[in-house]
Amino acid sequence: MEVRRAAKGLITYSDGSIVVVKGAKSGRWNLVGGGIKTDETPEQAFRREADEEIVDFIKQIGNLNEQTGIIRGEITTAKGIKLLAAWTLFKAELQSSPTDLQIANPDEISAITTMTFEQCLAEQNMSMLAVQAISRYLNPDLIPDVAC
User: Fold this and answer.
1) Per-residue pLDDT tens digits for 123-144
2) Which of 14, 54, 71, 100 could form an SS bridge with 87, CB 3.0 to 4.6 Å?
3) Short-list 88, 76, 78, CA closest to 128
4) CATH topology of domain 3-138
5) What is the DSSP string of 16-28?
6) Are 75 and 85 in contact (CB under 8 A)?
7) Which residue has the higher pLDDT, 97 or 68?
8) What is the β-pairing status of strands 3-12 and 29-30?
């Protein structure tokens, strides 16, 4: 089975809210980030993808730390192809206000917002892998009841 490597970010504000984006094609909420190109490190890919999704992301970022471990799971593409996803997860804090978030590429991202941990778990259109990542890093004792 093909493996899709990606670099995603658990981007938070000091109040604990999490930045999530809605895919223009998929209609699903997800963490900021995307695929890693052959010549990129995971951090380079995350910074590129985040800058493509959020206006002035690089200027807004505070701390950026790579998390240990990789989130793995099976995903199905829009064309119905099953892939194994392997995410390198970064933890980042933004220095701007949540009201300053702006979409950089509306062809890729249809919405951007912040959600609490509980809202992310309850959101029906949240990526299963995003729920796993959020759960693991914000509340490691919680095992979400998520359908694959």
Assistant:
1) 999 988 888 888 877 765 654 4
2) 71
3) 76
4) Nucleoside Triphosphate Pyrophosphohydrolase (3.90.79)
5) --EEEEEETTT--
6) yes
7) 97
8) unpaired
